[in-house]
Amino acid sequence: MNNSQQKSSVLPMAIVAILFFVLGFATWLNGSLMPYLKQILQLTPFQASLILFSFYIAVTFTALPSAWVIRKVGYKSGMALGMGIMMIAGLLFIPAAKTQIFPLFLLAQLVMGTGQTLLQTAVNPYVVRLGPEESAAARVSVMGILNKGAGVIAPMVFTALILDSFKDRVGTTLTQIQIDEMANSLILPYLGMAIFIGVLAFAVKKSPLPELEQEAEEGSEKGQIKEALARPNLALGVVALFVYVAVEVIAGDTIGTYALTLGVENYGVMTSYTMVCMVIGYTLGIICIPRFISQPNALLISAILGVILSLGIVFGDSESFTIANIILVPFGGAELPDTLLLIAFLGLANAIVWPAVWPLALSGMGKLTSTGSALLIMGIAGGAFGPVFWGLTSSATSLGMQGGYLVMIPCYLFILFYAVKGHKMTSWK
Q1: Most CB atoms closer than 10 Å: which of 63, 140, 198, 314?
Q2: What is the CATH number of domain 9-208+221-424?
């Protein structure tokens, strides 16, 4: 890019940065919401996993329609529309909290996921295309820090506004009056979030955010999808993102539920531990990619670390506090079980995967970029199925929730394959 192009990209990237923060805040609230609703509604691990399933499954149905919407209305209007849908979702939490009807919470989550899908499909291409391809992972890492930084803040806000008033109820049998109090405490925070997102949607619509060049529509949508999937680096990239989001959501959103079973009072803030590790990982990515390490090699290291940590979680001692006594307690931190902290450390393994896979998968896509982006966004559906498999495995193994983390190992092994070979494939033959 020449100097004028670089200067013109500053404002778009600043606006996109704000949107990544909003996406992260709304997404990682799930890590606190899941155990909170499990406690209020007395859900099983599998039922609790449906809170995440309903949020992420929206991607499966709305990613490709989102690409169509963006082609029709443009990237900027697509962003505003996505946030408008998210605002509606925030408002749906009000009747869900008042009635305590579980399907209403699932509906609100489904609508929130739909809005996020449209917003994600619009904002991610900006990051990849507004700059050199070889440094795309570094730009995505900057956005990831904001997204995951919001993931650090969101559980803390949830805990401060809601959970702190009820943390003495962990491990107790709740009366109906207590349940009503805990459910009603959700109303004002979600109303405030809905209003903020609505105002931001209006601001983005009126902003000077430029449109990316629209790809010419050549052939039918099915033809574009078929052409895109004929490129192995894209098709395998979709699978890599699917299994990645599965493990990312398991690490970020089930850690609070696992902490609740271990009797940790501040279970609602545990997602922040995972997000802090992800922020550290993104920062390392910005520093090291591509200066000291290539995107594929960073992906390789991430996959290997993920396998090692997963084995440590499953076979570790949940009554040992060695790690906390070394890195947390001496500095005034909480004494937490080793297995719980190993889940948080997965944030280090997961951080680089998303920013590394996107540019590798979209390399050479040209006019098929929006279709390829939509297909990659469909990989977020892994966040729907990962926790469900975790919940089912938790019920099927003698290790309980700890054994449920076995499902992450094959996911990291596929990411390892994509790093070593998958992204290099140019033909299915």
Answers
A1: 140
A2: 1.20.1250.20
